[in-house]
Amino acid sequence: MEPLEYLQNRLDPEQFEKIKVIDNPELHEFLAKYIDLLNPAKVFVCTDSKEDEDYVRRKAIEYGEEKPLAMEGHTVHYDGYYDQARDKARTKILVPKGVEIPFINTMDREEGLKEIHEIMRDIAKGKELFVCFFVLGPKNSIFTIPAVQLTDSAYVAHSEFILYRKGYEEFKRLGRDAKFLKFVHSAGELDERKTSKNIDKRRIYIDLEGETVYSANTQYGGNTIGLKKLAFRLTIRRAVQEGWLSEHMFLMRVNGPNGRKTYFTGAYPSMCGKTSTAMLPWENIVGDDLTFIVDMKGEARGANVEKGVFGIIQGVNQEDDPIIWQVLHSPNEIIFSNVLVKDGKPYWNDMGIPIPDEGENHSGKWWRGKKDAEGNEIPPSHKNARFTVSLEAFPNVDLEALEAPCGVRIGGMIFGGRDADTWPPVREAFDWAHGVITMGAALESETTAATLGKEGVRAFNPMAILDFLSVHIGDYLRNYLEFEKKLRIKPKIFAVNYFLRDKDGRWLNHKLDKAVWLKWMELRVHGDVDAIETPVGYIPKYEDLKRLFKEVLNKDYSREDYEKQFTIRVPEFLAKIERIEKIYKDVGNIPEELFKILEEERQRLLKAKEEYGDYISPFQLEKS
Ligand SMILES: Nc1nc2c(ncn2[C@@H]2O[C@H](COP(=O)(O)OP(=O)(O)OP(=O)(O)O)[C@@H](O)[C@H]2O)c(=O)[nH]1
Ligand SMILES: O=C([O-])CC(=O)C(=O)O
Ligand SMILES: [Mn+2]
């Protein structure tokens, strides 16, 4: 049967009409195939109308996937107790038989497709299936990538309405020209708490060739929200093939002297500070997780892939995060996930106010001291509990930049991670290649609760994208190095480390110190301050930071703190180069330039060590 004919038979006339007017046979075929496979009781097609969005929102509550909270617009959603983070082990990239790609969890495409299609057969039985259209990037711009989502979870569809720009009209406009991404999701059978029951059959399979991602028997956003990390695997590949960058980066405006606006991107692994940086109250947020960067007339231009925030709620408190706090306590449309609820109010770990001793959370009925099946005490909220809210709700959003069809010019690109003992708080690369290699490609960070598995383990995580990589790392890095050649005006590259600790494990910095590093980087982009040359890049001068700490945070910054934080730790840096070099040597197909740049850095460090010893005070380097 022809796909359109099938759809006409299968859908209510009202729903069918919405599909029929999109002139795209590939779409019709896709819809017919997966509606048939998933076999839902009914199908709802979302246009860009407010009524359709309202319908999805209502269904999320009717089907019990979300519950209303006391404040208007607020709901809570729970994922299963063992479904609280991204499942790396069961997320696989489907590749032709025999193909292996370093660092990537791959699977034979034929086999994978067969398995997932079997898992998905009749999986939506008795449920309603939502067909949703969105775009990645601003509408009608060079960044725009259309995408269609099928899901039997009203929570997933609802999240996407908050996080992405609507794309139904765009599909209609583009017709057959739409080169779109496809997402098929089913939460599978649900238990009495409306959480996915068959976790053993949880699968996230990414078919690069068909630009389709399948996700089954899971609800956690990172595993299910098609346009987020699932699309990210597909766009990384497109970017490498087409010569642009698709990155795990925030995008923000740092406000310089005399009203100067400078845009920065920042790539840090999951749970390592992207949202908290982009949300600094006196700067402006454009995006907090995913950025597309293209070259336009020799400039690097960036745009937020999304238009909302799926942010970590643990630790959000009135003092450090005043804006998020305010937004979370106002009648905005917000989905709280995996938090503690008592009397219709949400609570989370480390929120800076007393938390009730009982309520409902991701484990069901909860009381302080409750233990899970493994004997671990269950905290009030899960560490990876999140809030989903549109950026429009934030008073500090740069709306013009968010919707700019040509994006914004990027002045600086930052790389960072959880590094207890090596990198100083902030440092500038000597040039593009030095930054891309020693800061981006050499990034290591401790694992976090954003993925299932052990936390706090130092792990190689180049450009903060290792979990999402879908091409050979060598090709990915070559694309980065090549990208520079298209640029007339090159962003400066920086590295930050918010997570440096002393010997006793205490943090060497406060959470808001990052505000000072940003202002310093802004000045450096414009050549407004000098810096100290070290073997690993440029670092700030004490006088400049002292002044900025006073101006930005009204704090006194001592010489002792500066010296502790900015001492160049030669043995740690050398050990890191050793580790990174070994990793890349073992994989092959790596640009030669990477080894050259690491070797040069090693030689600079060895020379400095001879002259100054293992731990070099910035004051010593400043004098020389
Ligand atoms: N010690 C310390 N913790 C920080 C700092 N900045 C952020 N954090 C903590 O890091 C955690 C994650 O921060 P986010 O900004 O939400 O992480 P993200 O990079 O946006 O993460 P994803 O959404 O998972 O990609 C939170 O628990 C913060 O409290 C800092 O400067 N110092
Ligand atoms: O995708 C998710 O699960 C949330 C996120 O931003 C990340 O883990 O980097
Ligand atoms: Mn992320």
Automatic annotation (TrEMBL):
The record's GO CC annotations read: cytosol
Residues engaged in binding Mn(2+): K229, H248, D289
Main localisation, per the record? cytoplasm
Q: Which residues form the Phosphoenolpyruvate carboxykinase C-terminal P-loop domain?
A: 244-604
CDD domains linked: PEPCK_GTP
Q: What range does the record give for the signal peptide?
A: none
Record Pfam families? PEPCK_GTP (PF00821), PEPCK_N (PF17297)
Please tell me the species this chain comes from.
Answer: Thermococcus litoralis (strain ATCC 51850 / DSM 5473 / JCM 8560 / NS-C)
The protein's name in its UniProt record: Phosphoenolpyruvate carboxykinase [GTP]
The record places domain Phosphoenolpyruvate carboxykinase GTP-utilising N-terminal at 29-239
Quote the cofactor binding remark: Binds 1 Mn(2+) ion per subunit.
The keyword Manganese belongs to this UniProt entry's keyword annotation: yes
Where is this protein localized, as stated in its record? Cytoplasm
Reactions this protein catalyses? oxaloacetate + GTP = phosphoenolpyruvate + GDP + CO2
An annotated Gene Ontology molecular function: GTP binding
Against NCBIfam families, the record matches this protein to: PRK04210.1
Which domain of life does this protein belong to?
A: Archaea
- In which family does this protein belong, per the annotation? Belongs to the phosphoenolpyruvate carboxykinase [GTP] family.
Query: Could you name the active-site residues?
Result: C272
A GO biological-process term: glycerol biosynthetic process from pyruvate
